[in-house]
Specification:
heterotrimer, A alpha/beta (about 250), B mainly alpha (about 270), C mainly alpha (about 325), B: about 270 residues, mainly alpha, MetI-like fold, C: about 325 residues, 13 helices, 2 strands, about 0% strand
Chain lengths: ~250, ~270, ~325
């Protein structure tokens, strides 16, 4: 395994009942880079993403086969605790998911509270840091104790990002984080991603090819649950090796 | 890392939830078990076909109570359906009608009132003017219990019917009332029937409002203007009586009642799906 | 028939009939309040409203009617039953929504719905012939003999260990409201979006932490209004209580001994009421019960509206 590979899947398959949603995918995720997963809807990119922090454990009908290595350790090993994995590998979802019964501050520190952090100052520092990283601090610093559901959609999504960042994950998985947002908020989040990768490894699912081209370092193209092509983003978009990739990025299907 | 303590708490709470569920399910299972085991022995030919024996004597059956239940419950359902469905139509099809806020509040509140109060009302409004107890007064009491259930389900179902159906009808030049009667209501039939069944299941198990309305009657009668017996009422009287044979028959009545209500609920669910 | 007549007149007529019948529902509700108020007026006039509600003596022979004993019985049995039922009901709801899936989940949910629909008289019958002997022989008698030997001061609180009385009535009442409260709590828990759970899991939460910090807070309005509705049901529950409580209106009540609730008093004495004042007093008890039920129901509705948050309100 190369020195800078943070996460790697080996022959990963995910089954919904008998139906395979992802088939035999082997993909490296490089440290402190943004890896974009693209492909037409239903191609398995989200299913693949959710396998990277064991979210599929929550659904009894889903079965995962193969390996997902995080720093060389298989997260599906029987001895491995999914709770610890999810703390190291955070996730941001398609729609913002603020906890409606908590205020902005409590939303951001929810993960730290789980870990048992009680020190007020420590929590405040962490919240400020995470909100600054998510470029939300200036907008909410005066109303940290107001309900999180009062924020706009774009703000809510950045709050979700701040919440995921507050626990200082090594890897951040993002499942179409801008698909429910307006162009201005999308722009804000894209800017944010480029700055975030100094600290965090990011895997982002997007249905928007321009977005993948703009923000990612490497791109993986999925089709029908299989990984068709993976490489540096410039290469995948300017000189795809597989005709199916070319067909997709030139808009001939999907 | 206090992960072990967090897991300990996770497991502990899981255990508590399982225990709490068992605490609920075990006695409830025993209730069903006893009703079945004790009741099945009492359900014989005589139970269904004979009037009760005089107090203290063995034998006799529940025929008047079974017939009474059928008549009182059907009558109640009919009364409740007429008013309840109409109120549901008003709430769903005339959403801006000034009566609606009041109607909605009233039916919500009525649904939460103790059933025995409906008995008191029926006593004052029907029994006292008539001068004697009657099956009809029992039906009125039960109808008051059933109405809010029917209003709610009818309104809910009608609101689920796509507006396109109404539009299509109006586009054909049908007047509004024809659209409601010939297009909307038939489309909502399954749901409305479900509501009626749920209301019936609820009313059919009530004894409290019948004690001083339908009152009870050991003789077979088909006339709702006379006092009538119903299964829950007879069950109550037999259960608190000192006679062993009546206790046996009370279990039989309990099984019959429970089975009838289960079947009604089951059919209601099926109707909802179709 | 000319077309305009068919259209306009038909619409008017139909709307008129619908409104008239709906008015019937409103009228019925008003009739409930009016009938109970005017029916109880003689009792209220004789003893005064508060004199009646707080009167400690209910004696039909002497024509003395105070509703305090059955009111107290109602409050005690309902509050005790609710506190007994709350955690088991919530547990069952959590079990169905959060801890089980597939067949098991459906079976338990169906069983709970079934038991919520089981008539009160059936619970009462089971109470008389199964629960009462059990409570008497394995709970009340041992406690009573122990108290007689070691703490005779407790005996007046415990009361006669006959099995028929407050304790048995409360236990059956608790059993009866569990399925109801559980079904309402389940409805509330099922409204919690899966995305809320996933968001918490993604932060590294255990299942219990997800339930404790996300699911229950999200569903709290529904859960609490369900609790209040279950309380309302317990307050008015009649048959099972009447069959088990022993129907005594004489204060002071004891833990094991006979007592009465407002509903059980009405069910028990109404057909025996000889004179107008007795009848009026029983209807007046109904009016008091109506007021309490109204208040509890309005609180439940208010809670649901007030405590619902963003997504819950939509």
């Amino acid at each position: 395994m190369a020195e800078d590979v943070r996460m790697e899947t080996k022959d990963l398959s995910v089954y919904y009942g008998k139906h395979p949603g992802v088939r035999g995918v082997s993909l490296p995720v490089h440290d402190r880079e943004i890896t974009a997963l693209i492909g037409p809807s239903g191609c398995g990119k989200t299913t693949f993403l959710r396998a990277l922090n064991r979210m599929h454990d929550l659904n009894p009908i889903v079965r995962v086969e193969g390996q997902v290595l995080l720093d060389g350790e298989d997260i599906y090993d029987p001895g491995v605790d999914p709770v610890l994995i999810r703390r190291r590998v955070g996730m941001v979802f398609q729609r913002p998911t603020p906890f409606p019964t908590m205020n902005i501050f409590e939303n951001v520190v929810a993960g730290l509270r789980l870990a048992g952090v009680k020190d007020r100052k420590q929590l405040q520092q962490a919240a400020e840091r995470a909100l600054k990283m998510a470029a939300l601090w200036d907008e909410v610093k005066d109303r940290l104790h107001q309900p999180a559901v009062g924020l706009s959609g774009g703000q809510q999504q950045r709050l979700s990002i701040a919440r995921a960042l507050a626990v200082e994950p090594e890897v951040l998985l993002m499942d179409e984080p801008t698909s429910a947002l307006d162009p201005v908020s999308t722009q804000a989040i894209e800017d944010l991603l480029t700055r975030l990768k100094e600290n965090v490894t990011i895997v982002i699912v997007t249905h928007n090819m321009q977005q993948a081209a703009r923000v990612s370092d490497r791109t993986a193209f999925f089709l029908d649950g299989e990984l068709i092509e993976f490489g540096r983003t410039e290469q995948v978009f300017t000189n795809p090796k597989d005709p199916r990739t070319e067909a997709y990025i030139t808009g001939r299907f999907g | 890392m206090n992960l072990r303590r967090r897991y300990l708490r996770d497991r502990l709470m899981q255990l508590l939830v399982y225990l709490g569920t068992l605490v609920v399910l075990i006695p409830l299972f025993f209730i069903l078990y006893y009703v079945f085991v004790q009741g099945i022995g009492a359900l014989n030919w005589e139970f269904f076909t004979r009037p009760p024996a005089p107090p203290g004597e063995e034998g006799g059956g529940m025929l008047p109570a079974i017939v009474g239940s059928l008549i009182v419950d059907t009558l109640a359902l009919f009364i409740a359906a007429v008013f309840g469905i109409a109120a549901g139509i008003l709430l769903a099809e005339y959403p801006d009608h000034p009566l609606n806020p009041v109607l909605r509040l009233v039916s919500d509140v009525m649904a939460g009132l103790p059933a025995i109060l409906m008995g008191l009302v029926a006593f004052v409004l029907v029994v006292q003017p008539m001068g004697h107890f009657s099956g009809l007064s029992g039906s009125v009491a039960l109808a008051l219990i059933m109405v809010p259930i029917i209003v709610r389900t009818t309104e809910g179902v009608l609101k689920l019917i796509p507006w396109e159906i109404t539009e299509a009808g109006l586009a054909l030049g049908l007047p509004r009332w024809r659209v409601i009667l010939s297009l909307v209501l038939p489309a909502a039939r399954g749901g409305i029937v479900t509501g009626l069944m749920l209301a019936l299941a609820r009313g059919a198990g009530e004894a409290a409002p019948l004690i001083f309305t339908a009152f009870g009657n050991p003789f077979l009668t088909f006339n709702p203007l006379e006092p009538m017996d119903t299964l829950p009422l007879k069950l109550y009287v037999y259960a608190i009586s000192p006679y062993e044979d009546w206790h046996r028959q009370a279990w039989g009545a309990a099984l019959l009642l429970a089975a009838a209500i289960m079947v009604t609920n089951y059919l209601a669910r099926r109707a909802m799906r179709s | 028939m000319p077309n305009w007549l068919y259209q306009r007149l038909g619409d008017r007529l139909f709307a008129a009939v619908v409104v008239l019948l709906a008015l019937g529902v409103v009228a019925a509700a008003l009739a409930i309040v009016a009938v109970l108020y005017f029916g109880g007026r003689e009792a209220f006039a004789t003893f005064g409203f508060f004199g009646f509600v707080l009167g400690r003596v209910w004696d039909a022979v002497r024509g003395q009617f105070g509703a305090w004993p059955p009111l107290l019985g109602t409050l005690i049995t309902s509050a005790a039953a609710l506190s007994l039922a709350f955690f088991p009901a919530l547990s069952t709801a959590l079990f169905v929504v959060e801890f089980s899936s597939g067949r098991l989940r459906e079976t338990v949910a169906y069983l709970i719905d079934l038991l919520a629909a089981l008539p009160s008289v059936v619970y009462g019958l089971w109470g008389i012939f199964v629960l009462v002997p059990l409570v008497r022989d394995h709970l009340e008698l041992p406690l009573f003999t122990w108290a007689a030997a070691h703490a005779p001061a407790l005996l007046p609180i415990l009361g006669p260990p006959t099995g028929i009385g407050l304790l048995s009535a409360t236990l059956v009442l608790a059993l009866m409201i569990v399925p109801y409260a559980s079904a309402l709590a389940r409805d509330a828990l099922e409204l919690v979006p899966q995305s809320q759970r996933e968001a918490m899991y993604a932060l590294g939460a255990t299942r219990w932490e997800v339930i404790r910090r996300v699911v229950i807070p999200y569903a709290r309005a529904g859960i609490f209004s369900g609790v209040v509705l279950a309380l309302a049901r317990a307050l008015g529950e009649t048959m099972a209580v009447t069959m088990l409580i022993g129907n005594s209106v004489n204060l002071p009540y004891t833990l094991f001994g006979p007592a009465s609730t407002m509903a059980s008093l009405i069910a028990n004495e109404f057909t025996e009421a000889e004179d107008d004042l007795h009848l009026s007093a029983l209807i007046a008890v109904g009016f008091v019960l109506l007021l309490i039920a109204l208040v509890t129901n309005l609180i439940a509705t208010w809670m649901l509206r007030r405590m619902s948050h963003g997504e819950g309100r939509r």
